[in-house]
Amino acid sequence: MTPLTMLARPEEDARLRPLPWRRMAWVTWRQHRFALGGVTVLLGAFAVYLWLTGLQLHHAYATACHPVSSLACAMNFTGRYGITGIFVSVALQAVPPLIGAFAGAPVLARELETGTFRYAWTQAFGRWRWAVAKLVLLAVAVAAAAEAFSLLFSWYNQPFFAAGYVIPLSTRVFDLHGIAFAAWTLAAFAIGVLAGMLIRRVVPAIAATLAVYAGLALATTVYLREHYMAPLITSRLNLPGSAWVVSQWYAKDGRFAFPSRGSQLVSALSRYCPGNFDGSPAQCLSRHGYTQWSAYQPGSRFWPFQWIEGGWLLALSVLLIAAAVWLVRRRAA
Amino acid sequence: MSMSMNVIEASGLGKRYGGTWALRECSLAIPAGHVAALVGPNGAGKTTLLNLAVGLAAPSAGGVTVLGGLPAGSPEALDGIAFVAQDTPVYRNLSVADMLHLTRSLNRRFDQSYARARLNELGIPLKRKAGRLSGGQQAQLALTLALARRPRLLVLDEPVAMLDPVARHDFMATVLAAMVDDGVSVVLSSHVLAELERVADYLILLSRGRVQMAGEVDDLLAGHRILTGPAAEAGNFAERPVVHASRAEAQAHLLIRAAADDPVPPGWEAHPVSLEELVLAYLREPGAAALPGPAREPSKVTR
């Protein structure tokens, strides 16, 4: 637009300045306070539980685990609380998909299902700005709540860490610490929003969100995460305690022989190391010319991996939400 | 607002859903300052046309402008148009007061005192959840929210279809008051013909996705009449523009296009036509589409 045409209709231009974004804050809160309240209750209940059991956990660790290799630590700390810790971290894996399904999926699906979009999208605020404001506010709110919760969980999990009971890159630590938990929650929300926009009905959108999230989380944990950085490869047998071993295999004369598990290993062991042998299978086989190689991700890569996973999840979430906004903008009634 | 501008203007407008045209080759111009009724059977394309006009849907062909040339759905257009959708959707778990606050937040203008006074008059409590209001109250709430935006054009899609006669009457009284007091132009769709006769002074008849008739109601009524005479002579009207013919025993009723001062043939009686009769006649004869034709200049279209 040239300056001339801008001057031509000063009154019109002034009148039609877009409505301020801040007006959507009240609108979003008022319309989604039950969803946001639900997220708060879900995380709050878990938080109270983590706080109470975490205090016991920290106390047990402080009294029993000097040193951590002591029998008292094994009995009174890891033996007593280890199962609880596993149970808690498994339960927490369900929190992001629940937030995505019950806070994310209905945001647009309910408008479309009940027809209220015909009201919302014909107000002067404008439909795509309405969508941007609402989705960004809600996304930031759920991600912030998840991050706060994640910090509490890090505190809860810290004694297990110190006792060497968990390693940093294991699922029960990596997914729930750092920025990964917030990033997964954000991604779940974005999946829910787009599913709702595409499916246009609340209940099927909830089901689709859970299914898509489960697929993505599983694929990431099983296939994707180990490839974030090239693993370190070593023939040393005593790997650092914090290492996440990605794969192991045996080699002979510089060539791959067989993987370090399965029938080929069993037959090699029965051939070369029958009966009782000294040390581990790897030590015995090494006496027959076999070298065990390990590919592993060291625990020190926790933060680089967090940034990589957080980064692509954030990019994915932005993309999904942008797609939802684009659909709001062009979707015919 | 200039009375000569068109509040909705469409040219060659079409909308296709999948392989089906919901509306096609629709050209019309609805002038400002009217309560314009969009009538037609179910599936005629009324809702589609209104959705296109308020920017909820995008055209598959042609174009539509509002309020004197603004692109439908543009910020300027949304600012001047208030739309009440079919079944008057409201957020069921928000209170009436929240709906007011919501609408005020989403718009440049919102006449809070008008809205409160009107709801008070209607006996709609501000603290009640919108979902717990009766159907008539929900419709009145949606209409009040729309009018409090002080629009230049009010678009109503089947506003009274779900209402009982009393609620229907009250609703239309509100619409008429807004029209008279504030000069709001109104475009509404309906298939309740009896109601329209009382409120509408401009009519657009849609049939099978096309405009079949459009014009000011008075002009349309003055331009048509019913002739009653011997059935045997009905064939003599071949050169006359007969819209619809019906026979009862020896009598024929012909609805023809004719000015009031056209001579009546001997042996025949002429009667003025009611809006309902006129609409029904055109609906029964979809082939009569070409008669008044799609309106480019609505005031001339019926002659």
Concise summary:
By secondary structure, chain A is an alpha+beta fold.
Question: Which key phrases capture this entry?
Answer:
heterodimer; A: 333 residues; alpha+beta; 2 domains; 13 helices; B: 303 residues; alpha/beta; 4-stranded antiparallel beta sheet; disordered C terminus
Explain how this protein is built.
The complex is a heterodimer of chains A (333) and B (303). Chain A has 333 residues and is of the alpha+beta class. Chain A has helices spanning 3-8, 10-15, 23-64, 71-92, 95-114, 117-120, 127-162, 171-174, 180-199, 202-224, 263-272, 281-286, 302-330; strands at residues 232-234, 244-252, 255-259, 290-297. Chain A has a 4-stranded antiparallel β-sheet with strand order 1-4-2-3. In chain A, a hairpin with a 2-residue loop joins strand 2 and strand 3. The longest helix of chain A is centred in the first third of the chain and has 42 residues, at 23-64. Chain B is of the alpha/beta class. Chain B folds into 2 domains: 6-208, P-loop containing nucleotide triphosphate hydrolases (Rossmann fold), CATH 3.40.50.300; 221-284. Helices cover 30% and strands 30% of the residues of chain B. Chain B has a 6-stranded mixed β-sheet, sandwiched between helices. In chain B, helix 5 packs parallel to helix 6 (165-182). Chain B is elongated. The two termini of chain B are 27 Å apart. The model of chain B is unreliable at 290-303 (pLDDT under 50). Classes of the chains: A alpha+beta (333), B alpha/beta (303). Chains A and B meet through helix 3 and helix 6 of A and helix 2, strand 6 and helix 3 of B.
Strand order in the sheet with the most strands of chain B: 6-7-8-3-9-10
Helix-strand topology string of chain A: HHHHHHHHHHEEEHHEH
Q: Mind summarizing the main beta sheet of chain A?
A: 4 strands, antiparallel
* Largest interface chains and counts: A-B, 28 and 34 residues
